[in-house]
Transmembrane protein (Novilysobacter ciconiae), 144 residues
Amino acid sequence: MTPPLPSTGRARRAPARVFSCVLLALGVFGFAAAWVLVALSSGRLGSWMAILGAIDIVIVLRLGGWRPGPARALLAAVATACIAILAIWWIIAAHLGAMLGLTPWGSAIRLGFHHAWTLAGIAIGPIDLLWMAAAVVLAAVASR
């Protein structure tokens, strides 16, 4: 009978890292979807939701076991920015889809970058940009 091989921490960490990445992706997509629902039900952009998204990402990163430090702060800032970009994209797509008789998902797939950029430039004001920038900074600072 052969002795068992020594266990390394790396083998046990691989599934945990995959779980953490999946949890982060679910957090980003799930919160962006919640933001879209708030925006569509209120008829406004709801850029204040970016702050709640930053708090959500900080909690998700802590629950996912990401170590504190500059890497987690950068990841939190990027994830918060992704929430804002996804939410704005879906809000624009939902409004266009409603006018063209498409579902929001069908419209989001067909929406071109330049068209979305133009419509976002019209819809997003300085206060909205301030909310989103504050959220990115909050996520980076709170996750350190």
The longest helix spans residues 9-42. Residues 20-142 form one domain. The helical segments are 9-42, 49-63, 70-100, 104-110, 113-123, 126-142. The mean pLDDT is 92.
